[in-house]
Design goal:
Elements (H helix, E strand, L loop, with lengths): L14 E9 L5 E10 L17 E7 L14 E4 L5 E9 L3 E7 L8
Length: 112
């Protein structure tokens, strides 16, 4: 059995907790609070390709109630950070206003 690295703040992994915007496939945008962690540092994997590899994960929560908005519909969605960086993600489950997410490609927050 392989041991898994801890998924908590004491594990030394880069994290982001704060405001962001979810862009749905149809172009709608909603404000969320994102809690994200870098799962894999691509610089540590020789010949690593971002092609559909999950490198970051976490959760997204609506900042306010939005009629007709279900975060699970962001499949795939774009997560836009306050500084303009963006990353593609898949909603992984939860409720309409709080969902897990798994990033596809480079993390839109600091990875070094």
């Amino acid at each position: 059995m392989t041991s898994r690295l801890p998924f908590h703040s004491g594990d030394g992994r880069p994290r982001y907790v704060g405001p962001a915007t979810v862009v749905f496939p149809d172009g709608r945008e909603v404000s969320v609070t994102a809690s994200l962690v870098l799962r894999l540092d691509p610089s540590t994997v020789e010949n690593f390709s971002y092609d559909r590899h999950s490198t970051w994960a976490g959760s997204i929560t609506l900042m306010q109630d939005e009629d007709g908005v279900d975060l699970f519909d962001a499949a795939p969605g774009i997560l836009r950070m306050p500084d303009g960086r963006e990353g593609e993600f898949m909603a992984t489950g939860g409720s309409a206003d709080e969902n897990g997410c798994s990033g596809l490609g480079p993390a839109p927050f600091e990875s070094s």
